[in-house]
Amino acid sequence: MCGLLAFSSPTPISPPTLSSLFTLNESRGTDSAGFFAETLSLNPYIKKALGPFSKSLSLSFNPPQTNLFIGHTRAASVGNVSIENAHPFHFGSVIGAHNGTISNFKNLIDHYAQYNTAVFNHENLNIDSKLIFAALNEFDDLRVLTDIQGAAALIWRDKRNALPYLNVWRNLERPLHYGFMPNTPDMYISSEDAALFEIGCVNITDFNPFTLYQIHEGKIISSAKTNM
After folding, report:
1. N or C: more exposed end of the chain, with fewer CB within 10 A?
2. Which pLDDT belongs to residue 19?
3. Residue 65, domain member (yes or no)
4. CB 136 within 8 A of CB 144
5. What's the order of all strands across the beta sheet hosting 166-170?
6. What's the average model confidence in pLDDT over 80-109?
7. Is residue 172's pLDDT more than 90?
8. Helices (H), the chain
């Protein structure tokens, strides 16, 4: 079990609010914490640290001004506890974080290897979450979401999209919710709905399972059903 959190709005983030949301998701994972913040740089702004957020990244939490943010708190299930295995992961144009355990990830590595052995090998993809985002970089989103088996909630950014979308998807085995700050367009996303309530969000709603959402500046731009 891990924690996911995110932010999308036409206005910049509030670091104190995101810090609180991170801490409230620590109940879901204290092995490591990490985040991605959208910037104009060609190199993605990703920070990771071992241990709980409240004792690591929170001590100097000052992300760049951004209107798109992805965060993660890890409880290791596959793979050891290390910076390399901390989320978010970056493969090509895709940066993302995952909550859950993919039961068929080793079989998928072997299956996808026929297309790109340099990426899809067991040494490179030593944990299930890496396989997901490597595949999302190589293949169509809907294909990958149909292929994976096991528990999954996902948030990712694909820089091949002209607009800075958040992509969000989950199945029945992992929760994911969103809410808004009152009288603002600020959308916050969290594995814990109680955490959204604690930071002051209203209109807290579940993301529907087996639905791929694209979110831009706090608005759901599109949603498409995927196969179960």
Report:
1. C
2. 96
3. yes
4. yes
5. 89-91, 94-99, 153-158, 166-170, 211-216, 219-225
6. 95
7. yes
8. 15-24, 105-112, 128-138, 141-147, 193-198
Cα distance between residue 170 and residue 177, in whole Å = 10
pLDDT at 2: 94
Q: What is the mean pLDDT of residues 23-35?
A: 95
What is the arithmetic mean of pLDDT over 72-90? 91
pLDDT digits (tens, 9 = 90+) for 106-131: 999 999 999 999 999 999 999 999 99
Q: For residue 198, what is the domain's CATH number?
A: 3.60.20.10
Using only C-alpha atoms, the chain has a radius of gyration, in whole angstroms, of: 16
105 in a structural domain: no
Instruction: Say how far apart CA 82 and CA 11 lie, in whole Å.
Output: 34
Which are the contacts of 189, defined by CB distance < 8 A and separation ≥ 6?
4, 5, 6, 7, 8, 155, 166, 168, 176, 177, 178
pLDDT at 228: 65
Task: Count the neighbouring beta carbons within 10 Å of the beta carbon of residue 214.
Answer: 18
- Average pLDDT on 44-55 reads 95
Sign of CA dihedral 133, 209, 11, 59: negative
Please report which residue ranges of 94-176 form alpha helices under DSSP H: 105-112, 128-138, 141-147
User: CA distances (Å), 35 to each of 83, 154, 219, in order?
Assistant: 12, 14, 21
User: Residue 59 domain-assigned?
Assistant: yes
Q: Where in the chain does DSSP place strands (E)?
A: 3-8, 32-37, 45-50, 68-74, 89-91, 94-99, 153-158, 166-170, 177-180, 187-190, 202-206, 211-216, 219-225
pLDDT of res. 140 = 80
Range of the domain at 23: 3-100+152-225
Considering only CA atoms, which of 194, 155, 170 is closest in space to residue 73?
155
